[in-house]
Amino acid sequence: MSPCRSISQVCNHPFPNMGFQVMNRTCWGYALAQCIMMTCVVALATVLPIIGSSLAPSQRWATLPSSFSVAGLAIFAFPAGALMVKIGRRFTFVTGSVVGTFGALLCFLGVICGWFWVLCTGAFLVGANNACVQYYRFGAASSVEVSRVPFVHSVFILLGIPAAVAGGFVVSLVPGREWLGDAAVLAAVASLIAITALIHLADRGNNASVAREQSDGPHLLTLHDLSILGCSSAISAFMTLIMTAAPIEMLTATRSMSYVASAMQLHFLGMYAPPIVAGVLVAKGWRAFPILLGCCAGLLSTLYCLVLVDGNGFAFLLPMCGAAWALIIVPLSAAVSSSGKHRLEIAFASSTAIVSAFSAFASGGLLTYIGWRGVLWSSVVLVGLAILSSVVYLTVCPSCRSLLKVAD
Fold first, then answer.
1. What is the pLDDT of residue 405?
2. What pLDDT is recorded for position 220?
3. Alpha carbon of 137 to those of 27, 89, 280, 298, 370: distances in Å?
4. 314-339 and 223-252 helices cross at what angle (nearest 10)?
5. What is the pLDDT of residue 203?
6. In Å, how far are 243, 247, 257, 316 from 233, measured between CA atoms?
7. How many Å apart are CA 3 and CA 399, to the nearest integer?
8. Angle at the Cα of 395 (from 391 to 400), degrees rounded to 5?
9. What is the pLDDT of residue 211?
10. Residue 174 confidence (pLDDT)
11. 3-state secondary structure 244-296
C-alpha cells in the first residue's frame, strides 16, 4: 500500500460523502471539545497581554504570560503524542483537560492575588493542554473511513470561525478591563476547559492505545513523510511570522486600530474559510491543486507587498497568508491521517507547534533589527522552502504523481 494510500483511489464518488452525515458520534465529540478549546484560546489571547501589562514588574515582561502559553504548546506537543501510545487518546485528552483546568485556575488565582509568576505558570499549563488539542482532529479522522478524512480535517479547521466569535463574546460579556473582569474571564475559561474533560470521559469509542490501533502501519519516516513535515513547518512559520509582525508594523505605521482589527479579521477569515474547498478537492483526488495554489498565494502576495506597494497592502497580505496556510495544511493533514503512522502524526503536530512558537518569539526581534521589509524577505524564504518541500512531496507521492501525468 502506498504512503498516500487511498483517498484518491477509494473516493470514486466523493460528493455524497462530503456532508455532515460523515461526522459520527466520536467526531462530533471531538469537534465540540475543539470548538470550546479554541474559544478559550481566543479569550486568553485577548486578556493575557492586558493582565500581564498590569501585573508585570516591568513592561518589558508584559507579554510573558502569552509567551509562556506558546512555550507550553511547543514543549508538550511531542510528549502529548507519545503519551497517547501508552494510555490511549481518551485518557490523554482527559489528562490534558485536567491540567488545562488547573492552569486556568492558577491564572485566576494570580489575578486575584496579583501574583505575576503564578499567572505565567498557569498560562504555561494551559499551553500544555493546547498541545493535546492539536491531536483532536487526528483522533476524529481515525474514527471514519479514509474517504471521509479530508472532510473531517476541513471541518475542524473551519471551527475556528465560530470559536473566534464565541471567544470575543466571552470577553465582551465583562464590562471594562478591571481585575475583577479579567478574573471572571479566566474563571469562565477554567469552566470551559473542565467541560472538555467531561466530553472526553463520555466518549466510549476510539479509546484503544494508538500503538495498538496502528500496529500494522509502517513506522519509519520516508522521504515522502519528511517532505510533508518540511512543507507544513515552513508554511506554518510563514503564517505565524506575518500574523504576529503585521499588527505591530501597522501600529508603527500609524494605522488606526479599526484598520488593524479589520485586517486581522480578514486574516482569520482567510485561514478558516478555504478548508471545505480544499477538503473537497482532496477527496476528489486533486491533492496537488490546493498545495500548489497555497504556495502561489503565499509567494505572490508577499512579493506584491514587497515590490508593488513598498511593504504596505496589509489588507491583502494577511488574508492571502491565512488562505495559503489553510490550502496547504488540509491536504497534508489528510495525508498524515491516511499514512497509518502515529510517529508521523506526532512529528507533524510537534514540528508545526515548535516552528510557530519560534516564529512568534522571533517576530519582534526581526522587526527591530531588519525592519518590515526584512520580515517580508524572510517570509519569501519560508515560502520558498514550502514550495521546495511541496515539489518533493508531489514528486514522491504516487497519487499526486499520477495526477500530474494526467494533467500533462
1. 40
2. 67
3. 8, 11, 17, 25, 37
4. 160
5. 65
6. 15, 22, 31, 23
7. 10
8. 100
9. 46
10. 60
11. HHHHHHHHHCCCCHHHHHHHHHHHHHHHHCCHHHHHHHHHCCCCHHHHHHHHH
Closest CA to 103 of 147, 27, 37: 37
- d(Cα 352, Cα 134) in Å, to the nearest integer? 10
And the C-alpha cell for 291?
498545495
> What is the model's pLDDT at position 212?
42
* Owner of C-alpha cell 478559550: 40
What lies within 8 Å, CB to CB, of 158 at 6+ separation is 272, 273, 275, 276
CA distance 352 to 25: 28
Those residues of the chain that have pLDDT short of 50 are 1-21, 208-218, 401-408
Cell reading at 93: 485528552
Q: Give residue-wise pLDDT tens across range 185-197.
A: 777 788 888 888 7
What pLDDT is attached to residue 173? 64
* Predicted pLDDT at 234: 92
- Cα angle 403, 405, 406 (rounded to 5 degrees) comes to 65
Q: Cα dihedral angle (331, 385, 302, 240), rounded to 10 degrees?
A: 70
Which set of grid coordinates corresponds to residue 359?
516564529
Predicted local distance difference test score (pLDDT) of residue 235? 92
Residues 275 and 158: beta-carbon distance below 8 Å? yes
Q: Domains plus CATH for the chain?
A: 25-213 (1.20.1250.20), 217-408 (1.20.1250)
